[in-house]
Amino acid sequence: MSPTADWIPVDESAALELARALVRLRTVNDPSTGSSELPAVTLVAETMRSFGWEPLITEVAPGRPNVVAVIEGGAGAGPTLMFEGHTDVVTEGDPSDWSFDPFGAEVLDGRLLGRGSADMKAGLAAMIYAARALELEGPFPGRLVVGALVDEEGLMLGAKHFARTALAAEVDGVIIGEPEGGEVCAVAKGAIRLRLDLVGAMAHGAMPQHGRNPIAAVPGILAGIVELQTGLQEELGEHEHLGWCYLTPTVVAAGDLDQMNVIPARCSIGLDIRTVPGVDHGALVGDIVSAARVHARTHEVGLDYEVVDDRPAVDTPVDHPVVRSLVEAHELVHGERPPYGGVPGATDGTILTRDAGLATVVYGPGGKWIAHQADEYVEVAEIGLYARVYAEAARRFLTTGQGVTR
Ligand SMILES: [Zn+2]
Known about the structure:
The protein is α+β, with helices and mostly antiparallel strands and about 400 residues long.
């Protein structure tokens, strides 16, 4: 059997048109100008209704709804697969940094141009038409969920909201359509934002002996953090898809440049911590705080800390059916196995894994590094190719017995 003979036919031109229509909508979340994901949500819902689907629209924040459709296969019990994308985009920044209209959705030299083309309106359109193509092929076991969620570029409110729904508890695998340059990313880095607050006592700069300067503790604390990072890197090595763990101080804030004769009472240190699977976040925060406390005590200043954000790493096994189905589908469509990769930041998948325990894998059209840059684009041909892979992956996951049967 030739591999091409078996492809599920996808309406590629409709997928491109949907991607273009989505790019034309400036779905930056910006309450000050009233812009949000809403126009894209409306368009996605209208498209779904035109297929006869009954999308559920749920407001996550004022004017910011998730849209989720469930397509029952109609061929009996089976697993539930979710296609997931987000409807928001990051700002275009200064339009003069762009060589084309960021919201023109122009197609030029085989590329769809514009903010959100790669991240991730092409992926979302490809997933919607892949689901439609599978449905048109005839009944299949189990069901497919297509979710277009809000606020991925912000606090991931859409994913957090979906993770709490009864439907989420029934999902057996999720494919996230973020741009990863052809890589199948079953792993993603973890992240912690940690704030350390040192509390001393104000004094006149001429009489430092009457104060307790929190800045005095900073060099020791930063050196201690470097030491912990070195230890962690030696212990874990370089992850093949995610690289090194990093404990990066990104903020040191104390005093006032207009008041240099005042010893400040407080000093705050902000840390951006990036981990790989296997790192115990609670234990790591404990180690950092204990090391910092030693230096705080030496300088007689107090120490408070706050974990501002905690996102564990994603580590979906490559032999999980959702990953295996995707790899096999890619091979069928492209004639070769895809490379595995890793997500350096976080996606909605991080939240769906953390809050609902879902097996997630990230794979979508567009270059890995093009997201959030000026002159964002996606290759038009990729929209159709990814849609084919998605449709085939779904068929395999749901029908060939490789899925997880509940
Ligand atoms: Zn994205």
